[in-house]
């Protein structure tokens, strides 16, 4: 049982990654990004997830500096955007991200989407960065099983993470089992389905019985399913509340009730059909 925001899971290369972090998708660059990072750090968060396409890496970097937490306590993730995929362009994109974040290295670098005909070449660039010690772990985002199978045929180093849309309406059971078998850690983006799940009657009932909020119930469900989670918020009270999930455990029956809400329904694009 995960009982603290500081707790980590060990990735297959031995690197420890926090189970819980802050996502900054759609957070504005500048003070909004910097403030939410600082608020998160004050509330014990040590993992921050950004991406080149979010266009807020500079604000995130500023927040990291201003929070004054030592770099070795932090776990910072960014991602290479689709337009930059390919070998040389990925290496250049990584340099640009590091520069914007004002960091010497990243803890995790991900391929943002499986761009057909490019992601294998992109992966080779990530392997190079990893071997050079410029990033502590490498992984992918939005990869289905068949994308992972294609990558694994060519990869010298297996991805450490697959970050995907994951929530009670999209429980990704087969993907989870595949990743577990391969030693690839699953990580959830949009764990609250952009807020839609907070109105679900089953989740609201369960929340009442534990005297927790619907968001806290869902985030706890993630952790108990051994999925890393990175909820996003810019509101101070919500950043604090999202992290208040380490003093209770959902029982097996309630876990099953939430699992049963699955509809294989996405709020984001399907990784087999995206056009960006």
From TrEMBL:
The keyword Lipoprotein does not apply. PROSITE patterns: ALDOKETO_REDUCTASE_1, ALDOKETO_REDUCTASE_2, ALDOKETO_REDUCTASE_3. Residues 27-262 form the NADP-dependent oxidoreductase domain. Keywords: NADP, Oxidoreductase. InterPro entries: AKR (IPR020471), AKR5G (IPR044500), Aldo/ket_reductase_CS (IPR018170), NAD(P)_OxRdtase_dom_sf (IPR036812), NADP_OxRdtase_dom (IPR023210). Belongs to the aldo/keto reductase family. This is Aldo/keto reductase. It comes from Alkalihalophilus lindianensis.
């Amino acid at each position: 049982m995960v009982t603290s925001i500081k707790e980590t899971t060990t990735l297959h290369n031995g690197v420890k990654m926090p189970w819980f972090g802050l996502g900054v998708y759609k957070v504005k660059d500048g003070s909004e990004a910097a403030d939410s990072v600082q608020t998160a750090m004050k509330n014990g968060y040590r993992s921050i997830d950004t991406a080149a396409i979010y266009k807020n890496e500079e604000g995130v970097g500023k927040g990291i500096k201003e929070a004054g937490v030592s770099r070795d306590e932090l776990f910072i993730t960014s991602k290479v955007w689709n337009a930059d995929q390919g070998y040389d362009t990925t290496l250049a994109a990584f340099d640009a991200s590091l520069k914007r974040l004002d960091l010497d290295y990243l803890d995790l670098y991900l391929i943002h989407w499986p761009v057909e005909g490019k992601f294998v070449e992109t992966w080779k660039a990530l392997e190079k960065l990893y071997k050079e010690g410029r990033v502590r772990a490498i992984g992918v985002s939005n990869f289905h099983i068949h994308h992972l199978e294609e990558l694994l045929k060519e990869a010298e180093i297996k991805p450490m993470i697959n970050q995907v849309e994951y929530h009670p309406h999209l429980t990704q059971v087969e993907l989870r089992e595949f990743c577990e078998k391969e030693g690839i850690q699953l990580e959830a983006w949009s764990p609250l389905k952009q807020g839609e799940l907070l109105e679900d009657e089953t989740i609201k009932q369960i929340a009442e019985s534990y005297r927790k909020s619907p968001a806290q119930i869902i985030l706890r469900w993630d952790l108990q399913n051994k999925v890393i989670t990175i909820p996003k918020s810019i509101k101070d009270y919500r950043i604090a509340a999202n992290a208040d999930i380490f003093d209770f455990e959902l029982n097996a029956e309630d876990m099953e009730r939430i699992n049963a809400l699955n509809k294989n329904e996405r709020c984001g694009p399907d990784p087999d059909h995206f056009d960006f």
